[in-house]
From TrEMBL:
Pfam families for this protein: DUF1499
Source organism (scientific name): Yoonia vestfoldensis
Protein name, per record: DUF1499 domain-containing protein
Length: 148
């Protein structure tokens, strides 16, 4: 009986470690994440596993993107994976602390609108972390964007 319990525990641990390894090492299809649909109005959209915020900018495009890039890079476990300020679009990957689940956030300026689109890669629910991150980044931007 104890041998069976030990085998079950070892199997469960092996599955958990395997899942954690897959989540952390699975390749990222940058082309899938580094894209945005055109937007025409400011506002927020809650999506399954994601969140999109669109704000009118109150400063030059480059100033807004440069400041937002600095905010994103200062966010723990966040790194750029595609794009640049010069291209007016950058995509970042933010990983959760323990499991390392990747979320992808694309920022871009389309005309006088700033678009921040955050979404999860694995699963169905992000438990609100993408919305919280996007709203925090917008708070840190301060007066460089207008409220929706």
């Amino acid at each position: 009986m104890i041998e069976i319990m030990i085998r079950v525990i070892v199997l469960v641990l092996a599955l958990v470690i395997g899942a954690m390894t897959y989540v952390r090492l699975a390749p990222t299809d940058v082309a899938r994440w580094h894209q945005l649909d055109p937007v025409t109005t400011a506002g927020d959209v809650q999506e399954p596993g994601g969140f999109k915020a669109v704000r009118q900018i109150t400063a030059a495009q480059e100033e807004v993107l440069t400041r937002l890039d600095a905010i994103a890079r200062a966010t723990p476990r966040t790194r750029p994976i595609a794009g640049s300020i010069a291209e007016r679009m950058v995509t970042y990957q933010t990983r959760s602390l323990i499991w390392g689940f990747p979320d992808h956030t694309t920022i871009a300026v389309q005309g006088d609108l700033l678009v921040i689109h955050a979404r999860l890669r694995f699963g169905q629910s992000d438990m609100g972390v993408n919305r919280a991150r996007v709203l925090d980044w917008l708070d840190q931007l301060g007066p460089l964007t207008a409220p929706p």
